Amino acid sequence: MTYDSFLRNALISTLLAASAASWAAGFPAASGEFSAADQATVATQANRTSQAVAPQGRTRAEVLAELEQARCRGDLPFDGETGRTYREVFPGRYPLPHCR
After folding, report:
1. Is residue 88 part of a domain?
2. Secretion signal: which residues (predicted)?
3. CB hemisphere CA count around 90 (13 angstroms)
4. 3-state secondary structure of 41
């Protein structure tokens, strides 16, 4: 084993031990029991999360209609690299004649 590989392994094991210690410090005692304060904190965070992730209420039909309108206007991305839209690449084609 060379000196460089020894240092690399020593550094990795030190970092793993430090991260394991800090990770374990954030959890309750090994008995597995939560205190009342811990339970209240978890309940509060769960309520905030459930309120923040409430559905927006758009239906599948509305989303498909928006997609069709964007396609008709040429607002969809032409490629993932340049960020240009179909309307920018083919300006004479948009808006499509059969679209409202």
Report:
1. yes
2. 1-24
3. 14
4. helix
